[in-house]
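Researcher: Can you fold this with zinc ion in place?
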Amino acid sequence: MTSILFRPTFTLATLLLVVVFAASQSNAQKTEPEPKLKALIIDGQNNHPVWPKSTVMMKQYLEETGLFEVSVARTKFTWRSKREKDYLPFAGVAVGEELPKPKTDPDFAPAFKDYDVVISNFGNAAADWPEATRTAFELYVAHGGGFVTVHAADNSFGDWLEYNKIIGLGGWGGRTTKTGTYLYYDKEGKLIRDDGPGKVGAHGAQHNISIVVRAEHPITAGLPENWLSAKDECYSFLRGPAENITVLATGQNNTRKSSAGRHEPLLMVLRYAQGRIFHTTLGHDSYSFEGVGFITTFTRGCQWAATGAVTLPVPEDFPTHDKPSSRTFSRAIEGSEDGAERERSEKAGDNGSQKKD
Ligand SMILES: [Zn+2]
């Protein structure tokens, strides 16, 4: 009898406690948001004149996820920034001194270790970093730092052995057969390592690359098995140490007979000691960076490199096997509500328009 009488009281008290506890948890979540991941984009010298703009694009893509706060570190000597010079101030750093040839900035020494992920927007022929900066970078990655190499960042620093290990594969930049192996999928879907002689770095005409996902990984989870990139270059004949590397997705440089049948690695992940690296060869020009496939794999790749996990969803406008998808870039104006206010597109186009070759 007694137990029956007391039970409802006990149950109500328990319920009340649960409600109070849940409310306090919810309040705690509201007052203490998750700290943002710290990302650093490094740039200043790239053979691709889009670089001042693509740094701003990548910065905005990361900030729009709500997960990242993004800084930029730039060499004081810049190269090929003129085409997109209007974007230089938006990186929040000094504009720099534009030179006809890349030159080492003796003061370039970003505090890599203060960041969860470092993204390189350097390119072919970028001048060497000071020795101490190279060492700091190697230690940062080795001790568990995240690194993301975008398009021509895998052309940089061809004679820097540890950099080649960190990026796994690279092209041009003085690389030779000695730099390492070719790595690609053959027609039968077999992963090939080829130490034989041959060129290092090539691409044909730009096109919408048919991309095939090759591995289950947080970065590729939920993506269609086959999808089209925006108009871009398909890097091929890259070589490198290719250690601790997983090829996530491949594409064919089908504009050149010599590479027919080779499915080239376009998206890769690597480990370098404790560090995590995401390598994308996509991102030749503005319209390439506007591809939803680029944006999605880039932001997911940065999250994975920073944390080892991916929570960013696959967007509804992700491309399919026969339909590319792009978002015309317009820069969010700082200080506007939710960054919702945007500059008018210079193309007077609409967001979400399809790009064609
Ligand atoms: Zn390119």
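Model: Folded with zinc ion in place. Residues 37-307 form a domain with the Rossmann fold fold (CATH 3.40.50.880).
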